Amino acid sequence: MLPARKKRRDPRLGAGAVCKESRLATVRIAVSPWARPLDRGQERAIKRDAVLRAAAQLFNEFGYHETSLAMVAERLQVTKPTLYYYIKNKEEILFECVRLGLELLRSAIADAAASGGTALDKLKAAMHEYAMIVTRDFGMCLIRVGEDPLAPTGRKKLRFLKAELDHEFRALIEQGIAEGSLAPCDPKLAAFTLAGALSWIGRWYDPQGPLSAEQVARDSTAVLMNGLTPRRSSRTRSLR
User: Fold this and answer.
1) Domain ranges in the chain?
2) N or C terminus of the chain with fewer C-beta within 10 Å?
């Protein structure tokens, strides 16, 4: 097990290496997993997730190119060489953060598709979860940073996952049109429009702002599903 974070030398770093406190260490991640004992079987997975999550937060706040591994280490209150027990480099971190964001979205849509109710109900549930995910660390990193800084091989893998995500979203819309719960439209265009609008939440949402993620997800889904024009009551329509 790795040593708890303290102001002392790390024996792995050699003479003169000292872990220092930083302002980054106190932001967002309140307690580093290095600061408490862990079950050995869960230790690596928990600490690797902490590395990815801290990096995603920093990418979202400062941008990919302005974030260094030293900043990630500071936020976790560990030494920079400690990070290499869990990741190879910054590019691998970004790949994993974006991949996790895509997997979260894909799972949310798949879960909604497998739930009960009409295709309209499933689509609403999928949209709500989509909006929630892009307000969180990995989903926000997917939207704010994405795969563009990666090498071509990494970009290709992630774009394949994006294509699968789009296909599942589009399938829900096609089901809704077939059952009559959604108006006839171009499913591909509709899927792009909905995903684009929901994804943009990840760029402007502020966790410290006046609206909770739940409020944003609920109200954004309602606007996209119901539109902005007022709807006439059935009584009004019948009198025309």
Assistant:
1) 23-83, 90-226
2) C
